[in-house]
Specification:
The complex is a heterodimer of chains A (266) and B (470). Chain A is α/β, with parallel strands linked by helices and 266 residues long. Chain A has helices spanning 43-51, 75-81, 98-114, 122-142, 160-174, 190-203, 217-222, 243-259, 262-265, and strands spanning 3-14, 17-28, 32-36, 56-65, 68-69, 83-86, 93-97, 153-154, 178-182, 209-213, 227-232, 235-240. At the A-B interface, helix 2, strand 7 and helix 3 of A face helix 10 and helix 11 of B.
Chain lengths: 266, 470
């Protein structure tokens, strides 16, 4: 089995506070992992660190992605290598349409991956724009996003749920090897949750891996994890099969704290 | 918005693209500095009627007396004695590009003007240093009575119309630089659009400075008769020299009842140009004036296109974008003066500053007593690309009438780390991400432009953002 991502003893500081305190995790190609954990335990910190946010300082440990140490790579290079993060709080880009944004993203990732600058070649660019539009419309339909959204400015005035759908649309278009979904379920209504998570299943293949961050079991009813990990205070304190999520829902994090040796938490 | 902003070859510099120059292209120039003799010489060379010489000399006196403006940017380094006030590039002027001297023609070809003319323009005026070297107007418009020529030609061929309007909207005494222009003006465009005629594709002028230490003082006059429409576009560039150049234009526009004029500027001066321009329009009953002003480059630009709303129903808009890169100061904005009831104005200003660049919004909104039912909205947004750049706003509002609707809004934002990270996580480099944010920021203005100019404006800003100018 191909090791896609290997995190070894990761320590991360934000503004001089250590948030991740020795986290290790391996994700093989095609696997789905879920991370659950109380508010403030460091889930988004892990996601941001993996994606290369400049404010998250790795003080110790390693991140190996596709056999390559990616700690020195910028976020754009990580994206080109095949990492994707669906944000917990996606940002607005006023004046830039979702269409243009995605097209720019797809082209620059393609350019970084293959060295080919599609926009330099008029003919290719024209045919690729057609293909692009077709695909975009297809995925938007699949995710229940209205066609007019591609002409709206990125996340500007989107409702919470619409933002989350737009994140998954980006995931669909960018086709990463590893997609990190940071609380994609929050903000989605019950029907949208079903639609979007089924959408995630449709747009991803067994060649892609997913790291799902969530607070609730219900997302995992659709996106079925192979492994569930519990993150408490900057460390993974429990890892098991999908049944762990059900147990957590039932028993809460105090149960986790009772189960594990508190010395490893503090 | 378009993605072309990202397609440019980022190694291409202003210097290569616009900053080239030809040596010794002039056939005549006055000696450096300004005096009554120089003014007489210019007028004599042009074989002007007596009234114009008098107008010039009176303007020179006003210029000498008037103090430098006490607002705007730093003019202390501008040395009036070090400028050539008149540089004549050629003895002849072309109606076809083949009649234009080789070197000059090559310059405009490099700048893409003949190509643009073939593709999407109704007519072109090309000015090189002090004189217009080429004019054209497509036959269909000529037949309808449209006039598009240099202002010098208008003085010869349409002396009555010219004399009736010249200097009426911006008299020499308006400000020091209007006086300077009035004394030494040369070239510029003259446009006359007869009643009811709609020139529905743009007329374009291109102002090129070529010589070192050049002064360029074009004078533009546009008269739109009732119910007519015209869209005039001007572009400008200059070589990169170590010494300063001075560009000081005057633009007067008369928009008569029910007419509409749109005036678009895509200015792209090199960093050694002082750009001090007075632009004003008088807008009559139910008429509309729109200024779209893209200010890129220059050392210092001071320019505040104005709409004087003279009669009921007059509407004026100023859309201005300024990009202040390293070492540049863009002091720009707009003025709307409501002289009549039920007039309306919209001023929208967007500025971007980077590095040691400084962008200032300076505006005036004035509503006189009894201009009841007037409406105005002023909105200025500034975007800072880093911690060192600077932006300020000087909005002046004088309202002498109670029954009005006025809105004023100003925002300053900085390209944020989180926003950059978001875009970078989608594969965009930091440079691309910033460019995309900027293009989104100016989108409300860019979308007002015809496609070709929208592409051009985005491209020029992207070019500036590389910091490649100079
Ligand atoms: N940019 C930052 N600046 C300061 N503190 C931060 C920053 N990012 C995270 N933190 C802190 O790090 C800790 C972990 O935050 P993180 O966002 O990773 O939690 P989380 O597990 O995702 O929580 P939630 O379930 O609420 O989303 C918190 O105490 C948070 O305040
Ligand atoms: Mg979080």
């Amino acid at each position: 089995m191909e090791k896609l991502l290997e995190i070894k003893d990761l320590h991360v500081e934000v503004e001089n506070n250590e948030i991740l305190k020795g986290l290790s995790l391996t994700i093989n190609r095609g696997e789905i992992h879920a991370i659950m954990g109380p508010n403030g335990s460091g889930k988004s910190t892990l996601a941001n660190t993996l994606m290369g946010h400049p404010n998250y300082k790795v003080t110790k440990g390693e991140i190996i992605f596709k056999g390559q140490n990616i700690l020195e790579l910028g976020p754009d290079e990580r994206a080109a290598l095949g990492l994707f993060l669906a944000f917990q709080y996606p940002h607005e880009v006023p004046g830039v349409t979702l269409f243009n944004f995605l097209r720019t993203a797809v082209n620059s990732i393609q350019k970084k991956r293959t060295g080919e600058d599609i926009e330099k070649d008029r003919k290719k660019s024209a045919s690729s724009i057609l293909q692009f539009s077709k695909k975009l419309n297809e995925y938007m339909k699949l995710l229940g996003i209205e066609e007019s959204f591609s002409k709206r400015y990125v996340n500007e005035g989107f409702s919470g749920g619409e933002k989350k759908r737009a994140e998954i649309l980006q995931l669909a278009m960018l086709k990463p090897d590893l997609a990190i979904l940071d609380e994609t379920d929050s903000g989605l209504d019950i029907d949208a949750l079903k639609l979007v998570s089924e959408g995630v299943n449709k747009i991803t293949t067994t060649e892609q891996s997913i790291l799902v961050i969530t607070h609730y079991q219900r997302l995992l009813d659709y996106i079925k994890p192979d492994f569930v990990h519990v993150l408490v205070d900057g460390k993974l304190v429990m890892s098991d099969g999908p049944e762990l999520a059900l147990k957590l829902e039932e028993k809460g994090y105090d149960w986790v704290r009772d189960q594990v040796d508190t010395s490893i938490i503090n | 918005m378009n993605t072309d902003i990202l397609n440019i070859d980022r190694k291409e510099t202003y210097k290569q693209k616009y900053g080239f120059f030809d040596k010794d292209t002039f056939v005549y120039r006055t000696k450096k500095g300004l005096s009554a003799d120089v003014v007489k010489e210019i007028s004599g060379l042009k074989d002007e009627p007596e009234w114009m010489l008098k107008f010039r000399l009176r303007a020179l006196e006003i210029f000498m007396k008037k103090p430098m403006p006490n607002f705007g940017g730093d003019l202390s380094q501008l040395n009036f004695d070090e400028i050539y006030y008149y540089i004549k590039p050629s003895d002849r002027k072309g109606r076809t590009w083949d009649e234009v001297p080789e070197k000059v023609k090559n310059t405009f070809e490099k700048l893409g003007i003949p190509e643009a003319e073939r593709k999407f323009l109704a007519g072109v005026e090309a000015q090189y240093d002090s004189e217009s070297v080429y004019s054209s107007l497509k036959g269909q418009w000529e037949k309808l009575g449209v006039i598009f020529c240099s202002t010098d030609e208008a003085l010869k061929n349409y002396p009555d119309i010219l004399k009736q309007y010249f200097g009426t909207i911006i008299p020499p005494a308006d400000n020091k630089f209007a006086a300077l222009n009035s004394a030494v003006w040369s070239g510029g465009s003259f446009i006359y659009v007869p009643t009811g005629v709609h020139v529905d594709i743009p007329l374009q002028a291109y102002f090129r400075i070529n010589s070192e230490s050049a002064g360029q003082f074009e004078r533009t006059l546009i008269i739109a008769e009732p119910g007519s429409f015209v869209h005039y576009v001007e572009g400008c560039t200059a070589p990169v020299y170590a010494v300063d150049a001075l560009h000081s234009a005057v633009v007067e526009i008369i928009v008569k009842e029910g007419a509409r004029v749109r005036y678009t500027t895509i200015q792209n001066w090199s960093d050694n140009v002082y750009n001090l321009v007075t632009k004003r329009s008088a807008v009559y009953k139910d008429a509309t004036m729109e200024w779209v002003d893209g200010n890129i480059g220059s050392k210092l630009t001071m320019k505040y296109p104005a709409v004087y709303l003279m009669e009921k129903g007059a509407h004026g808009e100023v859309l201005s974008v300024a990009y202040a890169g390293d070492g540049q100061h863009q002091d720009t904005g707009g003025k709307a003066i409501h002289y009549a009831p039920h007039t309306s104005s919209i001023i929208t200003s967007k500025s971007i500053s980077k590095g040691t660049g400084r962008a200032s919004y300076r505006g005036l909104l004035k509503v006189v007593k009894d201009a009841k039912g007037s409406k105005s909205s002023v909105k200025c947004d500034a975007l800072l690309l880093d911690d060192t750049s600077r932006s300020d706003t000087y909005p002046k509002i004088e309202i002498d009438e109670d029954e009005v609707q006025i809105g004023h809004e100003a925002t300053v934002s900085r390209v944020g780390e989180e926003q950059l990270f978001y875009l970078q996580s989608r594969g965009l480099s930091e440079e691309q991400a910033t460019a995309l944010i900027v293009s989104g920021f100016i989108e409300p203005i860019v979308r007002e432009l015809p496609m070709e100019y929208a592409v051009e404006l985005n491209r020029l800003i992207a070019l500036e953002m590389e910091g490649s100018v100079g």
